[in-house]
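Re: How this chain folds, sequence and tokenised backbone to follow
How to read it: Take the token row as a discrete description of the fold.
Start of record: The labelled sequence and token lines come straight after this line.
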Amino acid sequence: MRRAPWAVALLLTLACASPAGAQAGSPGHDNVASASTETDGSRTSDFAWDVTQQRGGDVEELNSATATAHCVDCGATAIAFQIVLVSGTPDTVAPRNLAVALNDRCTRCVVVAEARQFVRVLDRPVKLTAAGREELASVRQDLRGLAGDDLSPGALHDAVEQDAARVQAVLATDVVPKSDPGGRAHVLAARQFQATDAD
């Protein structure tokens, strides 16, 4: 088995005006992308996207990307992006972000997993501006296309990083209080988790 992962587990604590929500979700919501192939000459991909809002409680969401291959001249790509917007004071903030790429006795195979998780805790319920929703829709479409493209691990990583920066920009500038769209929500905690694995 040939194993040469370049994994980065990066945690950034950002203090900027943030979040907004689109979908309501329950605490501990999982967002999972899983791509696996055992067929010679094949290529498979999976993409998972989630925008979750919750009030207080435990922040234990899982964002996971897993890519595996056991074949000849094949490949698998998994990309998972999750935005978690929490209003009020949560009991715990312990989200999980994972990326695993496994090449199981493959010949000339490439497997890549990219996972990004954005967590924002705010003092009040928020929403995205119309411009913010439009930008996130564009990011989602771009990432879905990247998952299906036959890119090198390095090229895919760079492209995913660009889309992650776009998400950060939306969270910094296009989130407003639901009760006062002209106002500004205060960020109590902001974290970004990054995980990358390739084989």
Q: What stands out?
A: The chain is about 20% helix and 45% strand.
